[in-house]
Amino acid sequence: MFFKLKEPPIIISVGGSLIVPNGGVDTEFLSNLNKLVRREVTKGKRFFLVAGGGNIARHYQEAGRQVIGDINNEDLDWLGIHATRFNAHLLRTIFQDIANPRIITNYEKKLFNWQEPVAIGAGWKPGWSTDYDAVILARDYGAQLIVNLSNVDGVYDKDPKKFADAKFIKKITWGEMLKITGSKWSPGFNSPFDPVATPLAQKLGLTVIVANGHDFKNLEKIIDGEPFKGTVIMPFNIESYFFDRDYYLGKKGGHRVKHAESTLGAFFHDIKDFLRAFYIKIQLNPKTCLDVGCGLGRLVGWLRFFGIEAYGLDFSEYARSMSNSMVRKYIKLGDATNIPYPDNHFDLVVTFDLLQHLDRGEIRKSIREMIRVSKKYIFHKIYTRENLWLKFTHQPDFSNVSLFSKKYWDRLFSSFSEIGEVRNVFRLPSFFETKYLFKKK
Length: 441
Hints:
alpha/beta, Carbamate kinase, 7-stranded mixed sheet, 17 strands, elongated, disordered N terminus, Rossmann fold
């Protein structure tokens, strides 16, 4: 590798109503947060904790209104900002031995040579919410995940405290989120993610998870990439394109099967999959192989050309219907988190540029499934942050909802005791590609 990237930090936006729910500090919540963050730090994680103002800010704002009547928005915002800073100082005190000594109150002044595993942020200036501050941190420090902790389980189509028929939303795009939040900011605004931060998060292609801050087991699952309860606000909802033909033609959203029907595009993909199949044949020579996320099944066809009993699995009937009729019968419809084959069924299971398309909470389950159905080898090619040639030569693809560093995947794969990495594999430098070959123990 020519260079080494630091693991991007995880930003946790801590709602002020969790810290000071009803005029009194919730020490039980803070004790649990302290334990969780320190436990995750021992695993190599880094955090920004951004404190909100919550009810205490609204109490001060309402008190001002009751005493003098009308208060302009700037003064109301300053009351809220100082509430966030008081909460942030409390967090800084709790994490003083592992946190940067400076509380971030001016987001134009970046932390110089930040080495500590934790840094604390607070409100900055009028017109900016702490949600917006969290998005600025994500932009400036390369974070891709913001966890927004509140006193509700996630995003609903309307206020669940006022409407009994409010419906929980598991996944939502930023464009859809704007329809819920609107576009106007006001001091004391209370929403799962505010309208000031939403457009910038959309522009940056960030993922935000809104979850209940009192459920620390669930928060640990979010941080560790396990299935969790909460709402994922994402730049691109792959599921909405699962049954959309235009997505597979590269005309909409991402480009999972780019230029599938063009002569030049088809020729390029054929050459690429021919070389991949040839590599698999000479390096591993499996008798049986499963390509998970096979798309149009071109790799399946070339593997069979080389005498390998190959099969494909994909979630889209459209992709299957567009495949070659000679290959189609070997492709099953299915989900990577629930592979419809028995244990130890294939000599080799492969994925090419699939895992970064999966939601964070689906990755571990999918990897476990691939290990389960393999009896010998598992191969993954993954688009990671180090693969900068793609950034220089391709348009941004927001369907890469789990675009992480190689270090993230190294740590994730090492947590599976059932597999060991095969090191003597030909790999181009990480500037170009990230590949893993594992052997089942």
